[in-house]
Amino acid sequence: MKTVCVCSSFKFYKEQVQLRKLFKAYRVKALLPYPDEAFWIRKGDKLTLRNLGKYSRSKGVQIAGRVSRKHLRKIDRADIVYVISKRGYVGKGVCMEIGYAKAKNKQIFSTEPIDDWPVASMISKVENPDEFLKMFK
Fold it and tell me: Where are the domains of the chain?
Protein backbone atom coordinates (compact mmCIF):
# COMPACT_ATOMS: atom_id res chain seq x y z
CA MET A 1 0.00 0.00 0.00
CA LYS A 2 1.35 3.41 -0.98
CA THR A 3 1.51 6.17 1.60
CA VAL A 4 0.63 9.75 0.63
CA CYS A 5 1.76 12.82 2.55
CA VAL A 6 -0.51 15.81 2.07
CA CYS A 7 1.07 19.27 2.18
CA SER A 8 -1.23 22.24 2.56
CA SER A 9 -1.64 25.63 4.11
CA PHE A 10 -3.96 25.55 7.10
CA LYS A 11 -6.01 28.11 5.15
CA PHE A 12 -7.31 25.02 3.40
CA TYR A 13 -8.01 22.95 6.51
CA LYS A 14 -11.58 22.24 5.37
CA GLU A 15 -10.18 20.78 2.13
CA GLN A 16 -7.73 18.68 4.17
CA VAL A 17 -10.60 17.20 6.17
CA GLN A 18 -12.53 16.42 2.96
CA LEU A 19 -9.44 14.87 1.39
CA ARG A 20 -8.85 12.71 4.49
CA LYS A 21 -12.39 11.30 4.11
CA LEU A 22 -11.88 10.66 0.40
CA PHE A 23 -8.54 8.92 0.98
CA LYS A 24 -10.11 6.79 3.70
CA ALA A 25 -12.88 5.71 1.29
CA TYR A 26 -10.17 4.59 -1.18
CA ARG A 27 -8.18 2.94 1.64
CA VAL A 28 -5.19 5.14 0.95
CA LYS A 29 -2.85 5.72 3.86
CA ALA A 30 -2.61 9.49 4.18
CA LEU A 31 -0.30 11.54 6.38
CA LEU A 32 -1.72 15.02 6.86
CA PRO A 33 -0.44 18.15 8.55
CA TYR A 34 -1.73 18.49 12.08
CA PRO A 35 -2.62 21.90 13.49
CA ASP A 36 -0.65 22.50 16.68
CA GLU A 37 -3.03 23.46 19.48
CA ALA A 38 -0.60 26.17 20.61
CA PHE A 39 -1.50 28.08 17.41
CA TRP A 40 -4.95 26.83 16.43
CA ILE A 41 -8.39 26.21 17.88
CA ARG A 42 -10.00 23.31 16.03
CA LYS A 43 -13.77 22.81 15.84
CA GLY A 44 -14.83 20.13 13.37
CA ASP A 45 -13.51 21.14 9.97
CA LYS A 46 -12.80 24.75 11.02
CA LEU A 47 -9.61 26.25 12.37
CA THR A 48 -9.26 29.57 14.14
CA LEU A 49 -5.88 31.12 14.78
CA ARG A 50 -5.30 31.75 18.48
CA ASN A 51 -4.22 35.12 19.83
CA LEU A 52 -0.46 34.64 19.55
CA GLY A 53 0.35 37.79 21.50
CA LYS A 54 1.18 35.66 24.53
CA TYR A 55 4.17 34.12 22.72
CA SER A 56 7.54 35.74 22.26
CA ARG A 57 9.03 35.51 18.78
CA SER A 58 11.54 32.90 19.93
CA LYS A 59 8.79 30.74 21.48
CA GLY A 60 6.65 31.02 18.33
CA VAL A 61 9.61 30.05 16.14
CA GLN A 62 10.33 27.10 18.45
CA ILE A 63 6.74 25.80 18.20
CA ALA A 64 6.57 26.36 14.43
CA GLY A 65 9.90 24.56 14.00
CA ARG A 66 8.65 21.57 15.97
CA VAL A 67 5.51 21.38 13.80
CA SER A 68 7.55 21.68 10.57
CA ARG A 69 10.05 18.99 11.57
CA LYS A 70 7.20 16.66 12.46
CA HIS A 71 5.68 17.14 9.00
CA LEU A 72 9.04 16.66 7.26
CA ARG A 73 9.28 13.25 8.96
CA LYS A 74 5.88 12.45 7.42
CA ILE A 75 7.29 13.34 4.00
CA ASP A 76 10.20 10.97 4.70
CA ARG A 77 7.74 8.12 5.39
CA ALA A 78 5.59 8.79 2.30
CA ASP A 79 5.90 7.35 -1.17
CA ILE A 80 4.08 10.28 -2.79
CA VAL A 81 3.44 13.90 -1.82
CA TYR A 82 0.11 15.55 -2.66
CA VAL A 83 -0.13 19.34 -2.41
CA ILE A 84 -3.39 21.23 -1.95
CA SER A 85 -2.87 24.38 -4.01
CA LYS A 86 -6.22 26.10 -4.15
CA ARG A 87 -6.27 28.85 -6.81
CA GLY A 88 -2.51 28.31 -7.25
CA TYR A 89 -1.65 29.31 -3.68
CA VAL A 90 0.79 27.49 -1.45
CA GLY A 91 2.21 29.13 1.65
CA LYS A 92 5.87 29.58 2.52
CA GLY A 93 5.90 26.46 4.67
CA VAL A 94 4.44 24.37 1.85
CA CYS A 95 7.06 25.77 -0.55
CA MET A 96 9.72 24.54 1.88
CA GLU A 97 8.03 21.13 2.11
CA ILE A 98 7.87 20.83 -1.69
CA GLY A 99 11.60 21.61 -1.92
CA TYR A 100 12.33 19.07 0.81
CA ALA A 101 10.24 16.39 -0.94
CA LYS A 102 11.98 17.11 -4.24
CA ALA A 103 15.39 16.79 -2.58
CA LYS A 104 14.24 13.42 -1.21
CA ASN A 105 13.25 12.34 -4.76
CA LYS A 106 9.56 12.06 -3.91
CA GLN A 107 6.96 12.17 -6.65
CA ILE A 108 4.93 15.37 -6.06
CA PHE A 109 1.38 15.95 -7.27
CA SER A 110 -0.69 19.10 -6.89
CA THR A 111 -4.45 19.70 -6.92
CA GLU A 112 -4.08 22.78 -9.15
CA PRO A 113 -1.24 24.54 -10.99
CA ILE A 114 0.95 26.49 -8.56
CA ASP A 115 1.39 30.21 -9.31
CA ASP A 116 5.06 30.42 -8.36
CA TRP A 117 7.01 29.09 -11.37
CA PRO A 118 10.12 27.78 -9.57
CA VAL A 119 7.89 25.89 -7.12
CA ALA A 120 5.61 24.71 -9.96
CA SER A 121 8.67 23.26 -11.72
CA MET A 122 9.04 20.74 -8.88
CA ILE A 123 5.55 19.29 -9.37
CA SER A 124 5.42 15.96 -11.22
CA LYS A 125 1.77 16.25 -12.22
CA VAL A 126 -1.34 18.35 -11.54
CA GLU A 127 -4.39 16.21 -10.76
CA ASN A 128 -7.59 16.88 -8.88
CA PRO A 129 -8.29 14.40 -6.07
CA ASP A 130 -10.53 12.15 -8.18
CA GLU A 131 -7.89 11.86 -10.91
CA PHE A 132 -5.12 11.38 -8.35
CA LEU A 133 -6.96 8.58 -6.56
CA LYS A 134 -7.42 6.56 -9.78
CA MET A 135 -3.86 5.28 -9.36
CA PHE A 136 -4.95 3.55 -6.13
CA LYS A 137 -7.85 1.55 -7.61
Answer: 3-35+68-136
